[in-house]
Design goal:
By secondary structure, this protein is mainly alpha-helical. Helices cover 73% and strands 0% of the residues. The chain is built from 14 helices and no strands. α1 packs across α13 and α12 (243-253) runs antiparallel to α13 (257-282).
């Protein structure tokens, strides 16, 4: 019976091509990361423990002196306030852009992007003119009778917050717009048909779905705010010094490279720790905006 079976042609199998999984393809990226990140960080760490004498005395000074501790606290306080206010201001703007007609939305979006291309120092000086005691804001409020004397809007936390929120807004709006545009409007309509109030729809549907954009923008704004120098220095003054200003003063004025390097290294470590914590709590996809 085996002789009556039809002859089957041999099955031709494609040769297995094994790809080389070495580090050759990633070598250029590793070199760039090493030159522009690893080497400067290692140099920073070495200077912090070798100048003026080898040891950990620079870190002991930073953690033991109340003045430096106050600067660290002020830095994270300002960054937290700026991030929170930026989220509250950027969310309605981003939602408006998301539901706006495409033609009009492109124009408004272009205006927001255009503000990012304006010189940072020029924008900060413009806020100095607006916020001073004889500035446009105080004079307008006094002319319409809302206040009887000028408000202290500069050389304090208020001025720093206003200036930095204005500068950070585009970095929060950009990821939020992308996230909100990806939300199906029928979801909100279905919630309304089921009896949900606008507040419930926002709290239970819109806000949870927009968390990837909030996480991505919030992380970007917070990290950038930690290392900001120009705006806090001009609008906050010496009484509201942040860590970047203190590092610049240590290195440029006092020529204390060891203490300045230690402060910069501490800021780097804390920033990376916060980023790792957010990755663990929120998730990679939410932190990166779903990218």
């Amino acid at each position: 019976m085996s002789g009556n079976l039809p002859h089957r042609p041999p099955v031709l199998r494609k040769p297995v091509v094994r790809t080389r999984r070495g580090l050759g393809g990633a070598l250029p990226a590793l070199i760039i990361v090493s030159l522009f990140f690893v080497v400067p960080v290692v140099a920073l760490l070495l200077r912090s423990v070798t100048e003026p004498t080898p040891g950990l005395q620079n870190y002991a000074i930073l953690f033991g002196d109340g003045t430096y501790a106050r600067v660290f606290f002020n830095t994270f306080l300002v960054a937290s306030i700026v991030t929170a206010v930026t989220v509250m201001v950027a969310f309605p703007v981003a939602w408006t852009l998301a539901i706006m007609p495409p033609a009009l939305g492109s124009i408004v979006f272009g205006i927001i992007i255009l503000s990012m291309w304006t010189n940072l120092l020029t924008r900060t000086y413009a806020w100095m003119v607006l916020l001073q005691r004889t500035g446009v804001i105080n004079r307008t409020l006094m002319d319409i009778g809302l206040i009887s004397e000028p408000l202290p809007l500069i050389n304090n936390l208020t001025g720093v917050t206003i200036g930095m929120v204005y500068i950070m807004l585009p970095f929060m709006i950009l990821p939020l717009v992308g996230t909100l545009r990806a939300i199906d409007p029928m979801t909100l309509r279905a919630a309304a048909l089921c009896g949900a109030s606008p507040l419930d729809a926002f709290r239970r549907i819109l806000l949870p779905l927009s968390l990837p954009g909030i996480a991505a923008g919030g992380l970007m704004v917070f990290v950038m705010s930690l290392g900001y120098f120009v705006t806090p220095t001009l609008l906050g003054g010496t009484s509201n010094m942040m860590l970047a200003g203190m590092i610049a003063q240590m290195i440029q004025s006092l020529l204390n490279w060891g203490l300045g390097s230690a402060a910069a290294f501490i800021l780097l470590v804390v920033t990376m720790a916060l980023y790792a914590l957010q990755l663990r709590l929120v998730g990679t996809q939410r932190v990166t905006g779903g990218v």
